[in-house]
């Protein structure tokens, strides 16, 4: 079996492979997690501050070997499964297959062993950074007092990662000669004390004899009209969502205040998702692809509009996470036109074919539609004109200050 872990799991995998998480040799299971939470140790009593976990689908069993891939499909490691919990939590040792190459600033990345060798036994002040170092005087003074090399460890995880590395490179120009910069893909932990303890552990593995934790950056989001936004319509076939989405696109283009990307469901099916079937797995994959493209448009401040059926709550939540993880906003519009009205319209004759058994797994007939309980706007077009529905969505964008 092959599996691509999520972003956080990939970051932890890289640190496991390079030795930054020593003494760990793989992902933690139930017993280790329990003692980490309760006592800050592994089950055998070895001190360890934070969970390092992997979740896999249900079709794995103890003894199976799973090849873990990076986002580009490069095999990174083989996991030998020792335990698999009902919630997908999977533990077991890992064996490296190749060096991780994904992500920015690969040329700057080095293993802890390589950095320790370069330090050559000299004392080092390890500075972990999640943002710029506004005041370098304390770092310089501490390093001078310790007669230590300064080791800047920008914690290059997620969307902010490249900016943190750039901040470290700028800081290096103002620090003593010999300062080292080594990006570390350490994902933040939710509890500040645990996050700090893990940062200190990683810094020590890289050769730091003293640890200085840079302050966490203060994130002040820009005004809504400058932020990326995805307007995601969901609803049954025939509900009117695509027509409303096209109307919204036209209205926004007339205003001219935002860069608009419109992902038409049929066009996506012919191009981005050509070859996919209408099985649940392929429909989920289609929605993920739409979500990825929409998030990329929003990442750069654009406004993306998409209107797939998107019948499953879990997949819609994945798209919301994709969008919000790049710092953009997500507006879910449920076009809640009842099935009876959608079937009455049936312009394409799809419901008739589904009732006749010619289209298997058809949403609303032979496959469920999970109505969202987290919609930001709900519209029923049974007794509402398309113009009125478009106005409702546009008014929501204006009141939320996404459009001026």
Q: Which outline best applies?
A: globular
Q: What's the CATH H-level superfamily name of the largest domain?
A: P-loop containing nucleotide triphosphate hydrolases
Task: Characterize the biggest β-sheet.
Answer: 6 strands, mixed
Number of helices: 13
CATH topology of the largest domain: Rossmann fold
Mean pLDDT: 92
User: Which range best describes the helical content: under 10%, 10-25%, 25-40%, 40-55%, 55-70% or over 70%?
Assistant: 25-40%
What Rg do the Cα atoms give?
Answer: 25 Å
Describe the protein in words.
- With 404 residues, the chain is an alpha/beta fold.
- It has 3 domains: 2-96, Sulfate adenylyltransferase, CATH 3.10.400.10; 106-213, Rossmann fold; 224-400, P-loop containing nucleotide triphosphate hydrolases (Rossmann fold), CATH 3.40.50.300.
- The protein has helices at residues 7-18, 30-39, 112-119, 137-146, 161-172, 192-205, 241-255, 265-270, 280-299, 313-325, 339-345, 350-355, 386-399; strands spanning 2-3, 26-27, 65-69, 75-80, 83-84, 90-96, 124-129, 149-154, 180-181, 210-213, 229-234, 260-263, 303-306, 329-335, 377-379.
- Strands 1, 2, 3, 4, 5 and 6 form a 6-stranded mixed sheet that branches.
- It is globular, with a radius of gyration of 25 Å.
- The model has no long low-confidence stretch (mean pLDDT 92).
């Amino acid at each position: 079996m092959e599996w691509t872990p999520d972003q956080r799991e990939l970051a932890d995998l890289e640190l496991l492979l390079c030795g930054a998480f020593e003494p760990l040799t793989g992902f933690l299971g139930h017993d280790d997690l329990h003692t980490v939470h309760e006592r800050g140790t592994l089950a055998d009593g070895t001190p360890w501050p934070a969970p390092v976990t992997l979740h896999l689908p249900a079709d794995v069993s103890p003894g199976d070997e799973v090849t873990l891939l990076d986002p580009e499909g490069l095999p990174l490691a083989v996991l030998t499964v020792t335990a698999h919990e009902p919630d997908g939590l999977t533990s077991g040792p890992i064996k490296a297959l190749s060096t991780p190459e994904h992500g920015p600033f690969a040329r700057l990345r080095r293993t802890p062993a390589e950095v320790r060798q370069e330090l050559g036994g000299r004392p080092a002040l390890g500075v972990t950074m999640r943002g710029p170092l506004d005041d370098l005087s304390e770092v310089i003074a501490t390093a001078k007092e310790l007669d230590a090399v300064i080791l800047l460890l920008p914690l290059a995880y997620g969307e902010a990662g490249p900016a943190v590395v750039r901040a470290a490179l700028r800081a290096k120009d103002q620090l003593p000669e010999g300062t080292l910069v080594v990006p570390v893909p350490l994902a933040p932990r939710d509890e500040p004390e645990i996050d700090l303890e893990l940062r200190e552990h990683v810094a020590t593995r890289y050769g730091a004899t003293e640890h200085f934790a840079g302050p966490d950056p203060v994130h002040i989001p820009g005004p809504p009209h400058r932020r990326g936004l995805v307007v995601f319509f969901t609803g049954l076939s025939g509900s009117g969502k695509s027509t409303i989405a096209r109307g919204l696109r036209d209205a926004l283009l007339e205003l001219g205040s935002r860069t608009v990307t419109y992902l038409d469901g049929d066009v996506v099916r012919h191009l981005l998702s050509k070859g996919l079937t209408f099985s649940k797995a392929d429909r989920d994959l289609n929605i993920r692809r739409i979500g990825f493209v929409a998030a990329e448009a929003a990442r750069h401040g654009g406004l993306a509009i998409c209107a797939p059926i998107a019948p499953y709550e879990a997949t819609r939540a994945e798209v919301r996470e994709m969008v919000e993880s790049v710092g953009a906003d997500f507006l879910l519009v449920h076009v809640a036109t009842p099935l009876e009205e959608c079937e009455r319209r049936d312009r394409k004759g799809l419901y008739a074919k589904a009732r006749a058994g010619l289209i298997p797994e058809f949403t609303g007939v032979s496959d469920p539609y999970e109505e969202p309980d987290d919609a930001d706007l709900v519209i029923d077009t049974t007794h509402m004109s398309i113009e009125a529905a478009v106005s409702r969505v546009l008014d929501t964008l204006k009141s939320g200050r996404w459009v001026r």
